[in-house]
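pinned: reference chain
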Amino acid sequence: MKRRKSDIVNIGNIQIGETNRIAVQSMTNTPTSDREATLRQIKQLEEAGCDIVRFTVNNMDAVRNIAYFRENTTIPLVADIHFDYKLALEAAHAGISKIRINPGNIGSDERIKKVADICREKSIPIRIGINSGSLEENILIKYGSPTPEALCESALMAAKTLERFDFNNIVLSVKSSDVITMIQANRLIAERSTYPLHLGVTETGTARYGIIKSSVGIGALLADGIGDTVRVSLTDDPVNEVKAANYILRSLKLKKGINLIACPTCGRTGIDLIPIANKLQDELDKITCDKQINVALMGCIVNGPGEAREADVGVAGGKGEAVLFRKGEIIRKINENEIIEILLSEIRQLL
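pinned: its structure tokens
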């Protein structure tokens, strides 16, 4: 698919924009003042495949821990700033990789200028984070509600303010808990700006429903070539946000990894496929892979052999057994209780 051409922005050791790979972000949910708990979660997110980690900076204790995080991890770190612009200044001095501000609550242009000045001096990008729940009062009066046009105008006005202060190292994001509003707002910005876009549906709720809402919103835009970084926001363990984001990218062939193709089962299924598929997926999630590997787990002889032949490795189930395929060739029959172990062995040989 053709990607939208966006400006290049460097966030620590990660470069986004243009044809750079789409970065996965998440946010810690520990008090940033608790440096050990926060560092532990940062490392968990990195191990899960996160590229950029954001955390709240809501007091000086949080600021003081930035240097500690920097000493103990190389992943780019983003300071999430609300209300108190002075915390943004302190975070910049502390070595943060990026600063996220919300024009709806950061204050006057004079304050924004001070943040822009320090970020320019230290080559720190600023993400303008527009949220439907905290739009400026004048925008809400003009549009009556957080419409896509309102979100777009707020983001572009904030970008113009930074531009007036000779700052253009900018990432934009417009988020709403309404999927359609989020999609439409980002499409408007993509037409009117070349700044890289961070995508996310905000406040989606629990993983059960939130992953679906995020997949629809983020996926629709990525399929149009729009988006440079993504976050799946869930009321859940942040590690699950990272897993979901990577699944979305892989499903659109925007990131390589192990792709499990498994049939939905029907009355013809000859093996106990559902627990096998879940156990296999749990094991695959533990494997770090920078190659595209397709694994087929099929329950019967109708679509099974065809799907398995198209995969790098796969099985087609029979009655209590399965046929093992490797790159389209039948290898041998295996017992049902061997499927997971043998597939994992085959996959490891492909890594």
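why pinned: Residues 1 and 52 are 24 Å apart (CA to CA). The chain has two domains: 9-251, 258-350.
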